[in-house]
Amino acid sequence: MALSAAEVSTPGAHRYARRWARAVGQRAYVPMSSDQVERLLAAHAVRLAEALAADEFSAEPAREVGRALVEANLTEPETLGWSVKAVAEHLVGDVIPGLDLPDLAARIADVQAALAESFAWALRDRTFAQQERISRSAWEARNEAEQALRDSEARFRAVFSGAAIGIGIADLSGQVVDVNQSFADMLGYSRDEMREINVSVLFHAEDGPDMWGLYEELIEGKRDRVRLEKRYFRKDGSELWTDLAVSLIRHDDGRPRFTVAMVQDITERYALQQRLRFQALHDPLTGLPNRTLFFERLETVMQDPEHNRRVGVCFLDLDGFKAINDTLGHDVGDKLLIVVARRLAEAVAGAGHLVARMGGDEFVILVADVDEDGTAVEVAETSLRAVAEPVYIGAHQLSVSASVGIVDRFVSDGGATDLMKAADTTLYWAKAEGGRGRWARYDPERAAREATSTALVAALPAALRRGEFVVEYQPIVSLHDGTLGAVEALVRWQHPTLGLLPPDQFIGLAEETGLIGRLGQWVLERSCIEAGRWHTEFPRARMMVSVNLSARQASAPDIVDQVAEALRVSGLPADLLQLELTESAVMATSGEPVRALRRLANTGVRLAIDDFGTGYSNLAYLRQLPIHTLKLAGPFVDGMRAHDPASVVAERIVDALVRLAHALGLSVTAESVESLEQVERLTALGCDSGQGLHFGTPAAPAAITALLRSAEMPAG
Fold first, then answer.
1. Are strands 577-582 and 606-612 parallel, antiparallel or unpaired?
2. Which residues form the GGDEF domain (predicted)?
3. Is there a single domain that holds both residue 24 and residue 96?
4. Looking at residue 572, which CATH number applies to its domain?
């Protein structure tokens, strides 16, 4: 940088820096040693002097010095005041003595303004507390300028008038005392017009409800500062969004004196934020609120302190949407989603319900206030009707339907996550019940049962490994002489927390998961081992064990080998093992399964049809199967009750079934026998054996052993 005839005095620069450092140290805590501060300020003094003395003047070095002061944490407003003042009073005399330029005064004013402006801008990027000090410093500078010399007025005006951010001063009544040009330009008024405005005029009904209250607390001295985003309306009626920081300036005794506002135009940033927020909270395809906005609203409703408030959710899923996507393409699918979204919004959003797209072809409706028990159902039915109208997309006419899961409950009954989980479960129920255009309502008892079933499914494999299953045996008694001729093996699950579970609570789950094969094989092996022991200890009893065989087991390629291995390991004669299959399983067999049954029968194992009469049997086909026994279904026997007109019909049915079985050379066992009267009537009809509570409940192997032992003891 070229200098004028006057040269920078290095000793003078250090003398100026020491004076500057002392002034800084007296006014604020300095996070450096005195030597470090002096070296730093000496370099800044040289830069300011070089700027004043340069042939081609530029105030940019002064701006850099202002920013550097803030970066060095020399941020007290008093530091700025002394620094600006010292530029005029000491810089030339100490650092560049003899400098004489015709525009020196103007250069000093520009350096002061640049230093102050850059310092203020840098400081504004720091904490809000620092911004308050800048505001107070600006006011003090202005107050001093009104009472001091002309150069002091110039310094203040450089800060106040030349600042790019808006600055406004108001008294405690709210009357605007002064504003800088930036603030006036922001609102589209002249400075004179602004001085005639009261702050209250700048508040509007659209402002937040607490904004005026914050201002009142400020002028009453209850607060020292307020910072917020505020919307102003320009003189032409257009909107202006600002970052507004208002500080209270007090008298020396602490009484409120006036307020200073610093205002920055953030209209473009605010508009961008609003666009980004809309994009973040709305589905780009349909324009509906997305799952994020839905959960925000739902959480707000669920946190309502009124615990007796009811909220409803309708979870909607289009039926067959995947087929439309796959056959007509995603473009048609997207257009269909847009149409459905518009219809749902028109149908229910007008009533104050929020419609959102959760993703894919799933939509959800928030019924924020359920006034009565059927409100959510009405919303669901309205939605289904809206969706069901034909949709025309190009050359395609689409027939659309949906399924809806409905949940409505008190907000105190659980959180938003639980509510949506219940809605998802209920939607699955609606889908599973078959048909299209259906809705289902949440049933907590059903959900609890399904939750238990799910837990049992998850626990089944480990239960098998840990040996949690046990087998109990229910007596099958001859109706001719009352002897114990057989027992039916019935598996139980000794669950560690739920206790002893009967088979109807887990056999179906084992079949669904494919574990029935392993479980059934274990029951077969266990039953054969127990029966083998009984046969060894009580050979004359010739007691048979009857084991249930699932349809999947019967169809297994190695079922014959499984049975043969169980008999070999246990030593049980084949004719003392009976395998029970349900009527539907037997009648559905063909091909290899039938051959497997015949191979089993050829080994001497007996085969029985369980629950006979509950399905449809092809009697001609039944004759071709190697069946030995029919077990009459419990409802037939249960119907044989005294003083019941229907018992006559039930008895005739049992009589016909017994005659039919005997005609085919089959024995008959009656299930669910609970009374002596039933025993007598079944015996009169020629039924061979009976099983039920009258003869004994399922019992542990030791109890069966005791029965066999008592049967062998001589009478008397």
1. parallel
2. 309-444
3. yes
4. 3.20.20.450
